[in-house]
C-alpha cells in the first residue's frame, strides 16, 4: 500500500486508538481485554503502515497521524536538543559562562622554545585556516623539501586522524594525538593542527600558527626568490594589522559561529563586519596590508577570506555580506590566490566537508551545501587588476602566474 493512500481518517483513528489504549493505572488493568477481532484489526493496520514506509515515518504516523507532533513533545525535544547542543558546544568551543562568548583554548605549545633540530615535520589539516597559514608560507618560501608534511583528516569522532590515502608519513600513526603523545613529557590537551614536530628530539616545536609561520620565515628554502614575509622593517606594521585581523576576523568568524547567546553573536558579528569594512577601505588604495609587499599579515587574512563564502557566511552565520560583495577584498583574495603555488594549498572540497560534516553541533544533518560559484577555481583566477596599485615594478611573486 502506498503511504499516500493512508487517509487522514485512518490517521485520526490511529491517534484515537493510541489515546484510548489501556493505561498502566492499576484500576484500568482490571478492564476486560478488547475482543480478539478488534486487536487483530488494530495490529493489521499497524502492520500495513509499517510496511508502507521507513520505520521512523511509520512510527510518527502511528503516533500522531499526519498532524504535527503534540506540543508537549515538541517542547520537550526542543529543550533536550538545546541542552545536548550546549553540552557538545561546551566541549567543542568553550565559552564564557556569563556571556556565552566563545573563548579559544590557548595552544599548549604557544612558542618555539630552544633551538629545534633540522629534522622538522609539519602536521596540518586542509580544512583548518590556521594550518593553511603554514602551508601557504611553506609554499611561498619554497620550503617543501626542507619541511615534509603530513595531512590529517577529520575522523568521525572529530579528532584529527590519518588514513591510507593521507598517512602520518613519519610514524604511521592513526591519530594525531598519538604523535603528540610520543614526546617524553606525554601530552594532555587538544591535539590541534598546525603542529610543528621535531623528529630528532621527538618533541612538539610549536602548535600556534602565528609563531610557526614566523619561525618558518627564518628558514632558508629553495626558490623563495628573496621573498621575506616577516621583514624587520615591517614587523611593527604587520603586528598592528594582526592586532585587528586576529580577534575580529580570524577568530571573529569563530566567535560568530560558536557564540552561545544572541548577545555574544551580535557583538562578534558587528566587530567582524566593522573590521571587514575597514580593510575594504584600506585595500582600495593599497595592494597589500603593508603596502606593496606581501607579508605574514596578508597570509593570515587570506586563509580566513578564502573560506568566507564557502563556510563562514552560511555555517557560522557571517551573513551581513558575502566576501564577493566587497570589491577590493575579493580582488585582493584573488590576487593572493593567483600567486605561484598558493592555489594548490586551497582545497575547496576538504574545507567544505571539514566544516559542514565535522562540526556536528552546528549542522546535525551533516548536509553539505553546493559551493558558491564565486568560490570556483575559474572565478578565483579571474583578473584582479591590483597590479595597478603596486608601485614596485616587479615583485618576485609576479614572475609566474597560476595556470
Ligand atoms: N591557536 C591555534 C588554533 C589551532 C586550531 O584551533 N586548530 C583546530 C583546527 S582549525 C584544531 O586542530 N582543533 C582541534 C581541537 O581543538 O581539538 C593556531 O592558530 O595554531
From TrEMBL:
GO MF: glutathione transferase activity
Domain GST C-terminal as annotated: residue spans: 231-373
GO CC entries: cytoplasm
Comp. bias (Polar residues): 1-20
Region (Disordered): 1-34
SUPFAM superfamilies reported for this sequence: GST C-terminal domain-like, Thioredoxin-like
A Pfam short name: GST_N_2
InterPro entries recorded: Glutathione-S-Trfase_C-like, Glutathione-S-Trfase_C_sf, Glutathione_S-Trfase, Glutathione_S-Trfase_N, GST_Omega-like_C, GST_Omega/GSH, Thioredoxin-like_sf
Protein name: GST C-terminal domain-containing protein
Organism: Sorghum bicolor (Sorghum)
Amino acid at each position: 500500500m502506498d503511504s499516500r493512500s493512508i487517509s487522514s481518517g485512518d490517521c485520526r483513528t490511529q491517534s484515537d486508538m493510541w489515546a484510548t489504549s489501556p493505561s498502566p493505572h492499576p484500576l484500568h488493568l482490571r478492564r476486560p481485554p478488547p475482543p480478539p477481532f478488534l486487536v487483530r484489526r488494530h495490529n493489521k493496520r499497524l502492520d500495513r503502515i509499517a510496511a508502507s514506509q521507513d520505520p521512523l515515518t511509520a512510527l510518527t504516523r502511528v503516533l500522531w497521524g499526519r498532524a504535527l507532533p503534540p506540543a508537549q513533545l515538541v517542547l520537550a525535544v526542543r529543550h533536550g536538543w538545546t541542552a545536548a547542543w550546549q553540552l557538545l558546544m561546551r566541549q567543542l568551543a568553550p565559552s564564557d559562562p556569563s556571556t556565552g562568548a566563545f573563548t579559544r583554548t590557548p595552544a599548549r605549545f604557544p612558542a618555539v622554545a630552544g633551538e629545534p633540530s633540522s629534522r622538522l615535520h609539519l602536521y596540518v589539516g586542509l580544512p583548518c585556516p590556521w594550518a593553511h597559514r603554514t602551508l601557504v608560507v611553506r609554499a611561498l618560501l619554497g620550503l617543501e623539501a626542507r619541511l615534509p608534511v603530513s595531512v590529517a583528516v577529520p575522523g568521525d569522532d572529530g579528532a584529527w586522524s590519518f588514513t591510507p590515502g593521507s598517512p602520518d608519513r613519519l610514524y604511521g600513526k592513526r591519530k594525531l594525538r598519538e604523535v603528540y603523545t610520543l614526546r617524553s613529557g606525554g601530552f594532555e590537551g587538544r591535539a590541534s593542527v598546525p603542529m610543528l614536530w621535531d623528529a630528532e628530539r621527538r618533541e612538539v616545536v610549536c602548535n600556534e600558527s602565528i609563531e610557526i609561520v614566523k619561525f618558518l620565515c627564518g628558514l632558508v628554502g629553495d626558490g623563495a626568490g628573496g621573498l621575506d614575509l616577516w621583514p624587520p622593517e615591517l614587523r611593527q606594521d604587520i603586528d598592528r594589522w594582526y592586532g585587528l585581523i586576529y580577534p575580529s576576523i580570524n577568530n571573529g568568524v569563530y566567535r560568530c559561529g560558536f557564540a552561545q547567546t544572541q548577545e555574544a553573536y551580535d557583538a562578534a558579528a558587528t566587530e567582524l563586519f566593522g573590521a571587514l569594512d575597514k580593510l575594504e577601505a584600506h585595500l582600495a588604495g593599497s595592494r597589500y596590508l603593508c603596502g606593496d609587499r606581501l607579508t605574514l599579515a596578508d597570509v593570515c587574512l587570506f586563509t580566513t577570506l578564502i573560506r568566507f563564502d564557502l563556510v563562514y557566511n552560511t555555517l557560522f552565520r557571517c551573513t551581513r555580506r558575502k566576501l564577493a560583495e566587497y570589491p577590493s577584498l575579493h580582488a585582493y583574495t584573488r590576487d593572493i590566490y593567483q600567486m605561484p603555488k598558493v592555489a594548490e594549498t586551497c582545497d575547496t572540497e576538504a574545507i567544505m566537508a571539514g566544516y559542514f560534516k565535522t562540526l556536528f553541533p552546528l549542522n546535525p544533518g551533516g548536509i553539505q551545501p553546493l559551493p558558491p560559484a564565486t568560490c570556483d577555481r575559474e572565478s578565483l583566477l579571474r583578473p584582479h587588476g591590483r597590479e595597478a596599485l603596486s608601485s614596485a615594478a616587479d615583485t618576485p611573486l609576479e614572475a609566474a602566474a597560476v595556470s
